[in-house]
Amino acid sequence: MIKVEEAIAIIEANSTKMPWKSIPVSKALGYVLAEKVISPINMPPFRQSAMDGYAFKHGIRHQYDIVGISQAGDHSNFKLKPTEAVRIFTGAYVPNDADTVVMQEHVMASEDSILIAKMPEPFANVRNKGEQIKANDVVFEANTLITPAAIGFLACLGITEITVYKKPKVAILVTGNELVKPGKKLSKGKIYESNSLMLQAALQTIGINKIKVHTVKDNLKATKKALQFILKKNEIVLISGGISVGDYDFVKEALLKNGVEELFYKINQKPGKPMFFGSKKDTLVFALPGNPASSLTNFYIYVYSAVKNRMGFSNTNLLKIVRKLDNDIVNNTGKTLFLKALYNEISVEILDGQSSAMLNSFAVANGLVIVPEDVENIKKGELVTILPID
Amino acid sequence: MIKVEEAIAIIEANSTKMPWKSIPVSKALGYVLAEKVISPINMPPFRQSAMDGYAFKHGIRHQYDIVGISQAGDHSNFKLKPTEAVRIFTGAYVPNDADTVVMQEHVMASEDSILIAKMPEPFANVRNKGEQIKANDVVFEANTLITPAAIGFLACLGITEITVYKKPKVAILVTGNELVKPGKKLSKGKIYESNSLMLQAALQTIGINKIKVHTVKDNLKATKKALQFILKKNEIVLISGGISVGDYDFVKEALLKNGVEELFYKINQKPGKPMFFGSKKDTLVFALPGNPASSLTNFYIYVYSAVKNRMGFSNTNLLKIVRKLDNDIVNNTGKTLFLKALYNEISVEILDGQSSAMLNSFAVANGLVIVPEDVENIKKGELVTILPID
């Protein structure tokens, strides 16, 4: 049995980054850049007006003749005399002979001339070529997460393809003779299988959408055979159930017989103690406890960061936050506790129903309060660390 | 021109909830329940062992004969004499004649009998029928967000279908003769069209995945015709560009001619002032500014909460947080500022590059600092309000 911190460190050390692939920017939300991106153009590509108004060469004059119109998208490079200006719109090309744009609200205009009532500073309201970024400058360094704003920036530079870390292929293997698929009749002694849907949804929240779910009978032969196939086809394998000490739990043996190296088994925590972590080549295996709340707890603490590590994220552990405790906590287990909790900007409330079989409280929780194994009491009003899970 | 708070209130008042639909639990992540859900079963459905161990009737004895095995999934209701126990595993059926389970670690076992070394309390390690939830009790009230844990809980009760608020159909209409599709050659005076990809990605982050993008020329006839079609087919319409005061901006006129009621036009803010909000029947129309950073700012402040309102979310405005400011802020605009910023648990830094045309800073920002219109100075170390956008 190892400590929580050791388990996290072992998983992190084994969660190598995935290979790269090229994808369209339009599909890149949530991926992480594997290579830096260089701008192919200056942005803006030309001197642009930042306002609707009139472009002219700044001088001592206040009156100008209007000799043309520059709309966004035009490229009419009007030759301007010092006495001349052009009507111009936001985003439009500023003629080479002009250096300043006056807002239309600051002029009195007739059909063919303007009188500037409020003279702008020289060069005002003109966005210079390359002001935002210059051709061949770095747009984003490697390991940048692709957000909506990043997609907008890449697109505005005309970039259509980028190189990112692939997402890992993830499979879920469900074991347990007691399990019945929701929708079927529940015969005596059976319960509904819920972990696979729950884990699929949890994976979806971090961008893993294609997940294969396999179900096997609780026996060594079936488990071994299923794993042989699954280990070849996936980079992360989640196994639900069959990893406790019970005489009928075959998962660990089936893993070892398939050449999976055990990296740890059992963690000094509650819930979620009976977890196996191992690897075979580049494939990571998490055998999660069968109890739903234990399974989801360990997903958030361990699987979450492993998946994100593999996808190239820089900050893979969920950002931990600190809040004032609304309840007293007693920990007489000698284990690290992960307590379902509801936090706000100021404080955090430990929820009722912490049993490892119960999902009720998990469904309303937005964080897990961490109580270290060597801490026996935390009093109301003291600060605690929380893993946000919303 | 209206205030930011007024704009938010008008949008909220007009963002009615969408009609309901029934969907499989397996596809319900991110939806909001339209009706409460009732449990069809007791959970657990029978008295379950919470441990691997031995089930027996608590008494004064320490020694018991083992008369059978109860595995998870079995339903062998062993008749037990007071001198008898059954081997039992986690999740397995506890025989009616037994009331207590002793952990296997606390017994000395031979092949056919056990001696209990550490006697548990009566009723220990038995999960009672309906302990988690009883048949016909409320699982979730209406307006509950479906999280991974909620999916797990619904599935474990055997529930396969739930009634949720539909997601709104969203279309994006892009206007602007200056715009060229990324991937094509950029001729003089033109820029790449990036807002549609950016807004699609932003919508994806809140679960809107099927988005139709339409592009029209900057003229009244084309805009009017496109809108006629789009307004009929969608519940939310985002229009990018064409809503400033420029003589070539036809969007507002095209909207009014299509029977869209103007609810406001222009907000006293920077960036993002030139925005139109209107409605026609149940369809909401946001005509967003063409500048990318203005467009995305207004997405997060206005569109985001409108979409979530319509999807049935209870807390539709992004949770605002408060942090200590790392820089001085000067606001001599008389407008509400939304400043791209990077916050951590303690403080917030205002980023360089706040121009409405620039996405550079937006791509690294994780929040927008709100500077109210009537606040001229905020000093380093003072507290500011942030809209998180990560």
UniProtKB/TrEMBL annotation, chains A, B:
Gene3D superfamilies with a match to the protein in the record: MoaB/Mog-like domain (3.40.980.10), MoeA, C-terminal, domain IV (2.40.340.10), Molybdopterin biosynthesis moea protein, domain 2 (3.90.105.10), Molybdopterin biosynthesis moea protein, domain 3 (2.170.190.11)
InterPro entries reported in the protein's UniProt record: MoaB/Mog-like_dom_sf, MoaB/Mog_dom, MoCF_biosynth_CS, MoeA-like, MoeA_C_domain_IV, MoeA_C_domain_IV_sf, MoeA_linker/N, MoeA_linker/N_sf
E.C. numbers: 2.10.1.1
Keywords: Magnesium, Metal-binding, Molybdenum, Molybdenum cofactor biosynthesis, Transferase
Transferase found in the keyword field: yes
Residues spanning the signal sequence: none
Top EC category: transferase
Reaction it catalyzes: adenylyl-molybdopterin + molybdate = Mo-molybdopterin + AMP + H(+)
PROSITE patterns: MOCF_BIOSYNTHESIS_2
Cofactor: Mg(2+)
Residues of the MoaB/Mog domain: 171-309
Pathway: Cofactor biosynthesis; molybdopterin biosynthesis
Family (UniProt): Belongs to the MoeA family.
Entry function: Catalyzes the insertion of molybdate into adenylated molybdopterin with the concomitant release of AMP.
The name this protein goes by in its record: Molybdopterin molybdenumtransferase
Organism: Flavobacterium chungangensis
